[in-house]
Amino acid sequence: MLFFVIINQGVIACFTVINVFPVERIIVLRERAAGTYRTLPYFFAKSVAELPQQIAFPLLFSLIVYWMMGLQNNGVKWVHFTLIVELSSISAVSLGLAISAWSKQSLFACIMAPFLLEIFRLFGGFYAIGASINGSIDWINVRPSYLTLSLTHTHTALQLHSLAVMARLHH
Q1: CA dist 44 → 17, 39, 79, 168 (Å)
Q2: How confident is the model at residue 157 (pLDDT cuts 50, 70, 90)?
Q3: Mean pLDDT, residues 86-97
Q4: What is the 3-state secondary structure (H, E, C) of the chain?
Q5: For 37, phi and psi rounded to 5 degrees?
Q6: Cα torsion angle, 165, 121, 20, 15, sign
Q7: What is the rounded distance in angstroms from the CA atom of residue 76 to the CA atom of residue 120?
Q8: What Å distances lie between residue 164 and 59, 158, 169, 171, CA to CA?
Q9: Which residues contact 130 (CB under 8 A, 6 or more apart)?
């Protein structure tokens, strides 16, 4: 169940921002050419403007799902769970923004996002360990990436949280 929480948050967070840059690309390029602002202030302003949404929805999701899954009835554990879900969501938003900035068209971004999310899932250490990957596709090993580390550690943290819950239930 915890695995699906991370997958759900990753996909939803990524797709909420996937159409950001292709839609605004022409406006941003025109305003940059006019010297109105540079790329970094635009990126920071965009990130700060979307931060409330990036925090509110995973928080609401955690508030509902944590108790529905029957995890420990403990506020501190819920805060840990919520922080893990928030970090997972923010890392997926980062991937969505990167794909969006890389794509000139929204359709291409929408096609590439699931592909890249699946590559990160498959080769990020959940299913395949470095030694077990065939040499012909070893180049796709994405373990050092920030997103993969984030998603891997998020999943590990949720598993450890789940194991603690199970241990307490059995004692």
Answers
A1: 14, 9, 27, 43
A2: low
A3: 84
A4: CHHHHHHHHHHHHHHHHCCHHHHHHHHHHHHHHCCCCCHHHHHHHHHHHHHHHHHHHHHHHHHHHHHHCCCCCCHHHHHHHHHHHHHHHHHHHHHHHHHHHHCCCHHHHHHHHHHHHHHHHHHCCCCCCHHHCCHHHHHHCCCCCHHHHHHHHHHHHHHHHHHHHHHHHHC
A5: -160, 165
A6: negative
A7: 30
A8: 22, 10, 9, 11
A9: 141, 143
pTM (2 d.p.): 0.69
Confidence of residue 114 (pLDDT cuts 50, 70, 90): confident
Q: Is the pLDDT of residue 151 over 70?
A: no
Taking the C-alpha atoms of 109, 112, 113 and 115 in order, what is their torsion angle to the nearest 10 degrees?
170
Closest CA to 1 of 86, 74, 57, 85: 85
- Express each pLDDT in 126-135 by its tens digit: 565 555 555 5
Give the amino acid at 26: I
Which two tokens mark 30? 């025109």
pLDDT over threshold 60, residue 97: yes
- The residue behind tokens 């596709």 is 137
